[in-house]
Target: Kelch repeat-containing protein
Amino acid sequence: MARSNKSGRYVLVLSCVALLGVALVADFLWAYSNSASSSLVWSGNLDRSLERLSGAGDLVAESVVKKKKDLKILESKELNATFADLPATMLEWEEMAEAPVPRLDGAAIQIKNLLFVFAGYGTIDYVHSHVDIYNFTDNTWGGRFDMPKEMAHSHLGMVTDGRYIYIVTGQYGPQCRGPTTRNFVLDTEKKEWHDLPPLPVPRYAPATQLWRGRLHVMGGSKEDRHEPGLEHWSLAVKDGKALQKEWQSEIPMPRGGPHRACIVANDQLIVIGGQEGDFMAKPGSPIFKCVRRSEVVYSDVYMLDNEMKWKELPPMPKPDSHIEFAWVNVNNSIIIVGGTTEKHPITKKMVLVGEVFRFNLDKLRMERRNGRCWEGCLSASRPPWLATGMAGFISHLASETKDQMILLPRRSLGACGELNCIYNFSLILLQSRSLFSVSFGITRLVQSNATTSAASKLLGLMIARGGDPDPITCNAIMHGYFLESPRG
Model:
């Protein structure tokens, strides 16, 4: 009888070990399926990160048996720069009026002091079919109106010429339904909708921009929401009307996929970030229920040059997606706010990007060789409610008058972690005649142990523009000279 009980205990222990082994294998395969593609680019960092964790196998085993609250500790462990905010001082964020409804994967376009916000998921089973308008001047929402019934409800391509908003394709319906070919244009002054010629094939979250009199649509995902599209089309448009009946094929993109920023700067078409792959509809599901598939988020930056050839530019500091409406061009710099990056390799959860990046178009021309064009000039952890779409606020501060940049400078200079960032942002402030804030920038340069040549140059430019440096600024530079002078 005792031997029988002992054998039973052995069987029970072996069964538990076998179940744990199955769980470990399943967890490994799941993690591999979600990160295999991205590891082709980031394999070195990811592998070393996992090695740094005390016993990768033990850690994965613990993640299987620990409770949900223990996973929070696991999530906080550093893996690499992709899964953590870049070092920076926290900016002071001002919370604006709450939106009338929650939205996910909607679209937003700013025209003067108004922000038009379209469609989006309310929940996974419900999508919005209206437009809300935010007024930057008085910090209020109002003027809601309906979208056409045939218009897509999320993952739209969208751009404006300052009056007309061009809306291209997108996903029609909730869950993970496929994209449509229907396109529309909105006259924002008359609140009137008009049709545009349909795309040759449906697309999901394509990059969209107006360039040289033509509406360009490129990339995105194909009908299954997952396979990246490389196709690129254009349509001649003017004053909200199509000048052609059919779309014209253009040079394909070097890399396809949805959720990219698409910008015209200095008469060049630039495409930034994005991803390959996305959730798909479960096969046979009558409601097109979303199921997870592997995604690769990337940091690539491409420019279409005068010869109509794609040229690769220096990449972003980290992979970034869902930024199609999270950018603005201010003072010849492209500002990218937030976004999403690669899923966490252990927890499989989406990771939000916590920085505000600046792509200096002047430095692109001057420093193309060394590739240091992306900077964390405004890098700072964002408040927890911010992921994308706040670039319009930064744009508004600079669009009224240049003097309104006084509202941001001291915070932004305080957030600069690199000397180049402080110096270049101070130059922008000089151009906008925010001279008082330039003094603060000079002081920050000296405090950051910069050589006094940079601070002195800023001081000279400031005086030449009629600025009167305060005593603190002068003392800071004199203190810097004293520290740099030879001893003895």
About this structure: The chain has three domains: 2-79, 107-331+384-400, 413-484. The chain has a mean pLDDT of 74. The chain has ten helices and 29 strands.
